[in-house]
Amino acid sequence: MAALEAQIAHIWRRLGFGPTKPDIDAGVGQGAQATISQLLSRPSVSWAASAFPADQQTDASALRQLELMAFGPVTSGSGTTSPQYNPAQERISWILQGLVVVGIVDSVYLNDMRDHISYLRAAMGSTYRQLLLDVSGRSGILKYLSGYLNTRDHPNQNYARELLELFSIGRVHPITGASNYGQADITEVARALSGWQYNWNTGLSAFNASQWDPGSKTFLGANRGAAGLTEVVGALVGHQSWPYYIPARFYREITGLVATPEVLSALAPVWGQDGNIAGLVSAIANRPEFLSDQAIFSKVKTPVELLVSATRLLGWGGLVADASNLGWLLREQSQHPFSPPNVSGWPKGDQWLNATNLQRWCQVANGISMKGFDWSGAIVGSVCPSVTVVHGSTTAANAASFVVAMAGLNPVSPKTLGALTDYATGGSWTPARAAGLLNLLLLSPEFLAN
Fold it and tell me: What is the DSSP letter of 259?
């Protein structure tokens, strides 16, 4: 069993985006179970519209989202953690953003994306059933998956297909492997979902009964009569795969492990017919395998997870200011938070881990850790707060162990610790060397792991 310090860091990585040293110290003082309970019981936090930049720059808004994920609702560029910070809410919102996917493309605009993210952030206090009812009529989903084009005379099956395949029950039963639906089901569900329109003058979406197909429909094994959106969602929550598909996705995200049939059967009553999001997350986090050695460091951080956790570690508040460069680098790594590659979401874990993307992460890590230094190591601007802490609190001899503990990366391999020590002791102990040490830490296998 991993040491308590490693467990606390793991909890913060999976129910948030990584710890700071005070987070680790507080967790060690109160214990693992108390840390889990404390993180999951924090009040939900709302982001006002003013949380995003006033301009309509996609990259600036996307990176502001990541800044809020790292620090909570704080002044942009502060690099300090808000007293209202709710890491579990940010983590769950990000899981949902990769599950119920919307991206800026074609007619989907920045305001649609902001609305979608704001809605998902409040979903932890609601149910997944209500989430499906609500997002189906919001502008982001309607435009991203062509729902606003679905009328009685010109049916469009795009949203119906993704609703079944990705957002609710999946193609096959997670335990038995039996097929969940066929093309006829998609066709009939599309008919039921017709009538939702988007007003291009007002920017609002609404149901237009004159564009809805009121005929009788048969799908998912039963005649549903003159079914509409409510009846579609009712059929989904009554489907035999409903208790398992979304819980399996959450379980994989939170533990890094594949849920066994026994695990899914245990989680099904918690999920229930309404889809209890908060209850499911709590149940997963309180299972013994969540803190097991098999779960700790069992995943690879995605680019967004790397950037958010690195900014927390560094106390770096320069995200929005560097929007153009970082936005481009995230796109190059196929994980710009407003531009998913497709409706399936972003590459997970080692799917994105290749030499090209690692080189791009090196560019990001260097840019944020060496903030405020020129190429000679002279200070020419504001440096990250953690650089000052590391330089002022350590010597070259003990700096490597210090930064490893600060990042919650124990147990660390002798190879990593040796490389960090060699760098720290390889020259004069200056602020620039402290920044370089943190830069090297961000490139270590332990930091890449989640």
Answer: P
Residue 50 has a pLDDT of 64
Assess whether pLDDT exceeds 80 at residue 282: yes
| Confidence check: pLDDT of 349 > 90 | no
Inter-residue contact 119 to 38 (CB < 8 Å): no
pLDDT for 293 beyond 70 = yes
Distance CA 278, CA 270 (A): 10
- Please give the structure tokens belonging to residue 379: 């200070």
% of the chain residues with pLDDT over 70 = 99
**3-class SS of residue 225:** coil
Give the Cα separation of 348 and 335 in Å (integer): 10
State whether residue 428 is helix, strand or coil: coil
pLDDT digits (tens, 9 = 90+) for 75-128: 888 889 999 999 999 999 999 999 999 999 989 999 999 999 999 998 888 999
DSSP 365-413: HHHHHTTTB-TTS-B-SPPPHHHHHHHHH--TTTHHHHHHHHTT--S--
- Res. 49 pLDDT band, cuts 50 70 90: low
Measured at the CA of 244, the angle between CA 285 and CA 337, to 5 degrees, comes to: 65
Q: Which among 280, 264, 304 is positioned nearest to 450, based on CA atoms?
A: 304
User: Are 404 and 370 spatial neighbours (Cβ–Cβ below 8 Å)?
Assistant: no
Contacts 24+ apart (CB under 8 A), 291-294: 291/1, 291/2, 291/7, 291/10, 291/11, 291/32, 292/1, 293/1, 293/2, 294/257
Strands, DSSP E only, in 184-243?
Answer: 196-199, 204-207, 218-219, 222-223
pLDDT of residue 55: 80
- DSSP string covering 327-350: HHHHHHTT-BTTB-SSTT-SPPGG
Report the candidate in 29, 69, 18 with the shortest Cα–Cα distance to residue 297: 18
Peptide bond into 445 cis (omega under 30): no
- At which residue do the structure tokens 């090297």 appear? 440
| pTM for this prediction | 0.96
Single-letter amino acid, residue 176:
T
